[in-house]
Amino acid sequence: MAVFARGEPCYRCLVPEAPPDAETCERVGVVGALTGVIGSLMALEAIKLIAQAGQPLLGRLLLFDGLNGDARTIVLRRDPACPVCGDE
């Protein structure tokens, strides 16, 4: 999960092209409880942005592994050659 905003790395910086063999929800399924967890975290990010409270996930990506109960955050880098937000 991430928050994308002007001046920060965009989704295209993170995923320049969809992999040809990407897993889809249709093919591998969806765990309903996991969508609830991520939805709640997304709602919290929206509240933080609106209230200007805390530290939103701007420029960062939260990776959540529901099967193992692990979460970590990594920094996203803006791609200067990105066709959406790059310098070119």
3D architecture notes:
- The protein is of the alpha+beta class and 88 residues long.
- The protein has one domain (1-13, 29-88).
- It has 3 helices and 2 strands.
- It has helices at residues 11-14, 25-28, 32-51, and strands spanning 60-65, 70-75.
- The protein has a two-stranded antiparallel sheet.
- A hairpin with a 4-residue loop joins strand 1 (60-65) and strand 2.
- The chain starts with 10 loop residues before the first helix and ends in a 13-residue tail after the last strand.
Q: What radius of gyration results from the CA coordinates? A: 15 Å
Please tell me the total number of domains: 1
Content-based structural category: alpha+beta
Shape: flat
Low-confidence stretches: none
What's this entry about, in short?
This protein is α+β, with helices and mostly antiparallel strands. It has 3 helices and 2 strands.
Give the topology.
Layout: H1 11-14, H2 25-28, H3 32-51, E1 60-65, E2 70-75
Antiparallel strand pairs: 1-2
What features would you highlight for this structure?
88 residues; alpha+beta; 32% helix
